[in-house]
Amino acid sequence: MIAITGASGHLGKATLEFLLRKTTPESIVALVRDPQKLADFADKGISIRQSDYADKASFVTSLAGVDTLLLISSAALGDERVTQHSNVINAAKEAGVKHIFYTSAPNPSLESSFTPAVDHFRTEALIKESGLTYTIFRNNLYLDVLPMVVGDAAKTGKLYFPAGDGKTSFALRRDMAEALANALTSEGHDNQIYDIGATTAWSFSDLANSISLAGTTVDYIDIPSSDYEAELAKHLPPVAVKIYAGMAEGIKKGDFDTPSPTLAKLLGREPVSLQDYFKTLG
Ligand SMILES: NC(=O)c1ccc[n+]([C@@H]2O[C@H](COP(=O)([O-])OP(=O)(O)OC[C@H]3O[C@@H](n4cnc5c(N)ncnc54)[C@H](OP(=O)(O)O)[C@@H]3O)[C@@H](O)[C@H]2O)c1
């Protein structure tokens, strides 16, 4: 049986949908805090079990009979997030899970300016120490987050961001979900670490060109980090400012510049590109 944590989230739900095309509903377990959120999947025959990352015992129970587990990283931060992940990894061991998949980030390191990548580094280490067979998907940034980053640049003609010439191998969350479902239901992924993203990488100038397609010309203006942080601080709490500013710094340093053929191989086609994504948005 295959179980998925975070099954009520965007990535989890999309992975469930793709899994249903690959295997029977009886062999899928969705792990959620609130089973009501997945009532439509329960109707399709998927087993829905209640568990909370903060409660290890809930996972020991809900992982009974599960061979393969996809741990979708928690939305918490720092020590709380790593403790939550540790609960799931230890429960998986106790419950007899054989293979754990985990959604990480590119170039995780204790020195990452993008602080979620520090948590991913620590979680990857826990997974390797656990002795479980593992497959780590180092998911690059979602294309899906770009409309929020771009804001009204298509109207103003100016895209302000502090990423220098840094490039990112963005990919669509839905493509990552399809690749996860394909890997969860196929062989050959034991103890592998995959860079999951586009086969190329795009700069913020490329991004500006992509949103210029609608007929307007958008210029990318590389601004100082301090200006970006000051702007974010007008709208967001300090913890969120740190994450977004850290992400921009990571992009500038090349931490997200990880083009790889792996996602395309897992999909059997090219993933959706930056340009095609904005074309479909219109
Ligand atoms: N690569 C990127 O660009 C990017 C961007 C954003 C996030 N991420 C990471 O990727 C993960 C998946 O992305 P997503 O878009 O699917 O995020 P999402 O839609 O926010 O889903 C997060 C999932 O985590 C579950 N969750 C949160 N706290 C939990 C807890 N204590 N116990 C059990 N479940 C808990 C949520 O359950 P509820 O429905 O009960 O809240 C939800 O199902 C995120 O959690 C984050 O770590 C990556």
Automatic annotation (TrEMBL):
Gene3D superfamilies: NAD(P)-binding Rossmann-like Domain (3.40.50.720), UDP-galactose 4-epimerase, domain 1 (3.90.25.10)
Recorded superkingdom: Bacteria
Pfam entry (one): NmrA
Domain named NmrA-like: residues: 2-230
SUPFAM superfamilies assigned: NAD(P)-binding Rossmann-fold domains (SSF51735)
Protein name (database record): SDR family oxidoreductase
Source organism per UniProt: Spirosoma foliorum
